[in-house]
Amino acid sequence: MTDAPACNRSMTSSEWVMLIALSVLWGGSFFFQGVAVRELPPLTIVVARVGLAAVTLWIALALMGIRVPGSRRVWMAFFGMGVLNNAIPFSLIVWGQAHIGSGLASILNAMTPLFSVIVAHLATGDEKLTPAKLFGVLAGIAGVTVMIGWQALGSLGLEVAAQLAVLGGALSYGFASVFGRRFRDLGVQPMATAAGQVTASALLMAPLMLMIDRPWTLAMPSMAAAGALVALAVLSTALAYILFFRILAGAGAVNISLVTFLIPPTAIALGIGFLDERLEFNHLIGLGLIGVGLAAIDGRMVARLRRTGSEPT
Q: pTM for this structure?
């Protein structure tokens, strides 16, 4: 990845617009998956998503004049990133959404930054846990516990397994966030990384999908399901990556992390409005605890409160 700005400055109005648009695109991915999974098996959805996204991103790279390195070392890294950032999490989350609502899936997926903190602490030498980050992780774990419940874990039903699958996807994203640091050292531009990883994941998963799903035996999907697949690939994957890296280049990694707070409300609203989903009270309590954890890890809200409290009155 390219270096983020040294100073994560306040965002401009246009960057805020892009950030909100990105949250809608990524929140919308849970909605699009919720539509598609009603008619299509998970692996077919995932391969269609990464395959169409790869074509879209390669076209964008050609138009932007960005070259993708062809060295074996870089492409091995693309395949590693494709597994951790696409193949595993996309498959687990789509399978989970076959059994739980898109809003709940988005809340569980919000654990990604918290898992990233744990993985970074264990796997790196320069991103160790601080008291604030530890508190954030514990708050997030408490939120998940409230949503799933200890008693439910004692009798592993399909719904609990689906929630654990989505959490597994979030954990894979956490590993991907650390693995992806190597692209900076490899000198690969972020847009090239995005195209390379979705291409690699499509190549890896297509044979598996053909063996398991045998798509030629499936019924023709409806216009709604087909449209959801295209939107998932082009909007929630390809366009989302373009926006993500543009915000990252201008406003920095800390500001881009704010998108994590904005994704669940979008997914919840779309699920309730169009998929007849509903959230239980414990889901909302869990969302609140995860939000507290994310705020603690982000740190800016706490720092702002401290400054306000120390100002003379």
A: 0.88
